[in-house]
Structures are given as C-alpha cells and as structure tokens.
Amino acid sequence: MPHTIAIVGGTGAEGLGLAVRWARAGESVIIGSRDVEKARETAAQVAANAGAGGHVDGADNAEAVARAGIVVLTIPFSAHATLLKKLRSSFQAGAILIDTTVPLAATVGGLPTRTLGVWQGSAAQQAAEMVPEGVSVAAAFQNVSAGLLTGDGPVDSDVVVCTDDERARQVTVELVEKIPGLRAINGGRLENARIVEQITALILAINGKYKVHRTGVRFTGLPIPAPR
Ligand SMILES: NC(=O)c1ccc[n+]([C@@H]2O[C@H](COP(=O)([O-])OP(=O)(O)OC[C@H]3O[C@@H](n4cnc5c(N)ncnc54)[C@H](OP(=O)(O)O)[C@@H]3O)[C@@H](O)[C@H]2O)c1
Predict the structure, then answer these.
(1) Whether 163 contacts 76, CB under 8 Å
(2) What pLDDT, in 10s, does the model give residues 155-179?
(3) CA-CA distance, 191 to 88, in Å (whole number)?
(4) pLDDT tens per residue across span 26-78
(5) Is the CB of 157 under 6 A from ligand 1?
(6) Is the CB of 197 inside a 6 Å radius of any atom of ligand 1?
(7) Are 115 and 202 a contacting pair, CB within 8 Å?
(8) How far is ligand 1, taken at its centre, from the CA of residue 225, in Å?
(9) Domains observed in the chain
C-alpha cells in the first residue's frame, strides 16, 4: 500500500531529490511550497522525471500537510520554527513528521561548514516540541546530499534514523529502503539527531576539500549488509 508523503519545501534541492526517488518507487508524493504554482510546476517536473511510478501533486504547504499521513520537512533551518508554528493546525492526527533539517550557520549568513546551537539540542528536537500531541517526529536524511539523490543510480550512503517512536522509525526505515542504495541505521533516540545533524557540516567541509557534491556516510561492522 503506497504512502502519501507531503514534502514541505519540496521545491528545493533535497525535497526534489527525495520526491523523485519516492515517486519512482510508487509512493504518492505531494510537493509543498509557499507558492502553489511553484509547487505544481515542481510536481510536474518530478512526475516527468519519475516516469510511470507514483502519483505526484503540488499544493501549498498547509494543504500538503493536511492531506498526508507522512510529512517530510526539507526547509532551511532559518524557516523551521516559524513554518512549523504556521503548519501546526494542519497535521493529521497520528501523522509522522520526518525532519531532514540541519541547523547550518549558512542559513543565517554564516559558514556552511558550521552549525548553530539549537536550544532544544537539534532541529528535530525543536520540531518535536512544536508539533501537536500525537504527531511523532523522526530525524533522517540529514547526511544524504541532494547531489546524491539527483540522478538515476543507487545512492551510496547510510541514513541514521533517530526517534522516540517505534512506528515512526518503522515508517522512516521503509521510506529509506525505497531508495536504491540507501541503508537505514537505527540511531536510537531522537536526541541523537544532534550528532547526526553535525555530521552534515563535516560532509560539506569534506565536499569542499575534494571538490565534490556527493560525499556519503557508511557505518561498518553491522549485521545488516550494505546494499550494492
Ligand atoms: N541540499 C542538500 O544537499 C541537503 C542535504 C541534507 C540535508 N539538507 C537539509 O534539508 C533542508 C533543505 O535543504 P535544501 O538545500 O533543499 O534547501 P533550499 O533549496 O534552500 O530550500 C528548500 C525549500 O524551502 C523553502 N523555503 C525557503 N525559505 C523559506 C522560508 N523562509 N519559509 C518557508 N519555506 C522556505 C523553499 O520552498 P518554497 O519557496 O517553494 O516555499 C525552498 O525551495 C535544509 O535544512 C538542509 O540543511 C539538505
């Protein structure tokens, strides 16, 4: 049974990459944006790129959230609190929010290789504090660069899934594994998202040193094989 996934900020690089991959896997995707026309244009682009796969639609962020049981947040950290506050009343009861946000200093004019201190510990923990009761938050995909998602081949990376809710973990793991090459790693509690978010700043520094856009992360020594 396909999921319905709203991607808030789905017109950006990360959201677009995830949308194409999930649409190809047969999921039903709603691209969310502040601008409904932009959302529809991006949805058409995703549908063309994904081929005959899933159903892709565009809507303003609030409508996208209201129509989906799974909401994926792909927005700059500078918009995180304000947007979550606006969207609070739109969530379905029992929805799952997957937060990909990294509090990069670049979102407020600083360096992309540094992160901002977040009072709650991480962007994902800030989200958990802001969503209505009954909405579960999982943190994932922060270390998967849009450069890796773009293209047709397998994505050579692990995705650490941090959450305090086992249903949210299960759904997030399923969505990770819908993308060829990605492997989901159980990263424990949501509070561990603070460590995973920091790794993205390191990845950006490594990308800069090697002049690439597609550094990924793999964990070794685990009893779950990495996909080929
Ligand atoms: N890019 C990557 O490689 C990558 C990798 C891992 C994690 N991430 C994380 O994923 C998130 C998104 O990254 P991105 O590169 O896709 O970002 P982006 O392209 O800069 O922005 C994504 C979307 O967010 C919306 N947005 C921008 N400013 C906003 C505001 N003030 N209020 C509401 N919405 C706003 C825009 O959509 P509309 O204009 O259509 O509303 C935009 O298309 C970030 O937190 C980033 O750290 C990114």
Answers:
(1) no
(2) 999 999 999 999 999 999 999 999 9
(3) 21
(4) 999 999 999 999 999 999 999 999 886 679 999 999 999 999 999 999 999 99
(5) no
(6) no
(7) no
(8) 32
(9) 4-210 (3.40.50.720)
